[in-house]
């Protein structure tokens, strides 16, 4: 089975450091198009058998491979204990805009745990892909996914929308959503069919704290903890100050005539 990955360049590294983990690693590589297996040199025969033509074996410490993995791949699947992965990657972390999405799998293939860059890095989506392929349980700990509510930094992503907001504005808007504060959702452009496919799919209704509007001018910003504005327009005069610090602007692709 081959799948569409949640990364623009479809680059995924699969890391396994034990003989028993390599069998599972082979299944992962077969599932993810373009994925490459990384394993210690002492397991070369097993690695090449598990992922023919897609195995790289290294000498030395696994931790020494991390800089190249971070630089060369959008996602990393580690068949390594969660605690070990934390120690391996800790010195190399930058921020959620740059770090790859990392998913940890246990050797039994029972749990897929996104442990870094769940949203922007695509780890939550990758965990969902792996769970479906392996029959594993995805362990999602991000608040929006645990509660099946709106993920502010993923709204419209599957439709090609981009967003304009500072880090602090994303944090404030996300907190407003998950803490059930009133949030204005103003949609003036783009497909309205986004909720069912949002963040791996949502089956329930739109959260009650999200109030929908068709025009920005219809809202009173002071009554909302955050404003999510989907539009092709520039902010009307004076609205930059009125929404300062609590707005996220989404830009759907412009239709070509």
From TrEMBL:
Pfam families to which the protein is assigned, alphabetical: CbiG_mid, CbiG_N
Every Cobalamin synthesis G N-terminal domain range: 66-145
Domain Cobalamin biosynthesis central region: 151-252
Classification via Gene3D superfamilies: 3.40.50.11220
Superkingdom of the source species: Bacteria
PANTHER family documented for this protein: COBALT-PRECORRIN-5A HYDROLASE
Name the UniProt record assigns to this protein: Cobalamin biosynthesis protein CbiG
């Amino acid at each position: 089975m081959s799948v569409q990955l949640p990364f623009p360049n479809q680059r995924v590294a699969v890391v396994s450091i034990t003989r028993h983990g390599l069998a599972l690693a082979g299944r992962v590589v077969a599932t993810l198009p373009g994925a490459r297996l990384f394993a210690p040199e002492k397991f070369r025969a097993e690695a090449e058998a598990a992922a023919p033509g897609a195995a790289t074996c290294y000498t030395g410490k696994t931790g020494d491979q991390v800089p190249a993995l971070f630089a060369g791949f959008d996602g990393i699947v580690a068949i390594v204990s969660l605690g070990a992965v934390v120690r391996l990657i800790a010195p190399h972390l930058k921020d959620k805009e740059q770090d790859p999405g990392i998913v940890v799998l246990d050797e039994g293939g029972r749990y897929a745990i996104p442990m870094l860059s769940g949203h922007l890095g695509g780890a939550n989506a990758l965990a969902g892909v792996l769970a479906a392929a392996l029959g594993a349980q995805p362990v999602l700990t991000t608040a929006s996914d645990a509660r099946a509510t709106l993920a502010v930094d993923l709204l419209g992503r599957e439709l090609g929308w981009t967003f304009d907001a500072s880090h602090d504005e994303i944090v404030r808007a996300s907190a407003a959503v998950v803490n059930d504060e009133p949030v204005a959702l103003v949609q003036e452009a783009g497909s309205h069919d986004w909720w069912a496919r949002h963040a791996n799919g949502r089956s329930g209704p739109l959260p009650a704290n999200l109030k929908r509007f068709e025009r920005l001018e219809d809202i009173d910003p002071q009554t909302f903890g955050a404003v999510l504005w989907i539009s092709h327009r520039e902010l009307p005069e004076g609205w930059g100050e009125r929404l300062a610090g609590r707005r996220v602007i989404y830009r759907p692709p412009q239709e070509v005539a």
